[in-house]
From TrEMBL:
SUPFAM superfamilies: PR-1-like. This is SCP domain-containing protein. InterPro entries: CAP_dom (IPR014044), CAP_sf (IPR035940), CRISP-related (IPR001283). The keyword Cell membrane does not apply. It comes from Orchesella dallaii. Gene3D superfamilies: CAP. Pfam families: CAP (PF00188). The lineage of its organism: Eukaryota, Metazoa, Ecdysozoa, Arthropoda, Hexapoda.
Amino acid sequence: MARFALAVFCIAALAATSSAMTFTEYGIDTACTAYDAVCWYETLKNFPKTNSKGFGKCGTTCSQMKSQVMKYDEPKQKEYFGKFLAQHGFGSIPSQYSTCESVLISGATETSDDESDALRDGKQEYPFRAFAYCMMKALRSKHGDKAIEAVKAEKTHSKKHWMETLLTRDNEFRALHGSPPLKRISPLNKAAQEWADKNAAECNSKHSDRDAAIRQWNGKGTGESLSAGGGPDAPEDAAYIASDGWYEEISLYPFPAGIKDANDPRFHDVGHFTQTVWKASEYVGYGYAYNPNCSPFTHYITARYSVAGNLAGAFQENVVPPL
């Protein structure tokens, strides 16, 4: 939100300084805000039909297109950005948004739509305004007002803390299986953060030892889920990628028979899912760390659960099909 406010300020100050953001750059930024919001909602936010891997195909597309065109003069920025994003951006989002492609290529300002509140643009006129409004209108048409409200609550008007995102999303998934909501507590937060920091420092997404002191709480072991990804420091998005990705393993879980223990060869592919919905787990803690010097992963998430899930012989009673 701070960056968006800066953009608005720069537009207002165009007459005062030659170094301020141009209308074209502001338009490109706002177009990216709209495109990124659609990508985010369709792949990460849309519950329960998430596609965390799909976010990797569109999550940085618009920023990459901007970086390619900003070396040109302003007329070519406008011309090339629309063409580049049309060519590379629409294949990664649902086909309903293709109706916005023509106004993207034209860079049109004029539009009869009004999505100024969703984008917080003060109803100004700028290049690609028609495209930005079209994308928000298409999002609303497909998913209803709840989608626009989600964009406002987590992208354009304010941000949701990554830890709140993880807890809320994990509990949403748990509710689908009749599991009680987890409670986040500081001792598990501290332990999870220490391990996330360690993994980031070592550029290595590695599980801690089950018997290690850092895995113990109240005299018992805790469960652990990890997530690692590349790209810029965006903990809010990383939180959705982690929780959604863990739960998406449900597609590989052998309902109704289930599995018996971690020795089952299928466990490797479903262990995050089973820990997420494990009924007996009551408490959780989360850690997030970022290291731009790591490759290919730059951000690291750790979740710690108590009581630990994935206990031998207890899968049938703790991992049930969606209600």
